[in-house]
Structure of DUF3040 domain-containing protein:
Amino acid sequence: MECVFRGTCVGMAPENDHAESVRALRQLRRMRTFYAGGAVLWAASALVAGWDDPGSRQMWVSVVLLAVFTALLSMTYVCLWRQQSARWGEPVHHAAPRRMAWRRHADA
């Protein structure tokens, strides 16, 4: 570990860093579902509005909101992809490591 500035040490991540990254990934997955639902909703709305009255204000608002939700969805996919590729090389620790129990033999 190396102390850089006024006793600030670098080299070790805080203990809660893993928990925060797991929460962030869970949040991103939830938002991905929400953005996908919004994109489907606005695509359907744009389709119906375009079918009834092509070129209407309602159709263009639906198209703009579809573009916004699609952009948010794509940014969420990129963030999740980066997180997975960054964590690809790390070992996965789901539980405590299994160690062989030491067997002590009595001397004869």
Remarks:
- The CA atoms of residues 7 and 103 lie 44 Å apart.
- The radius of gyration is 25 Å.
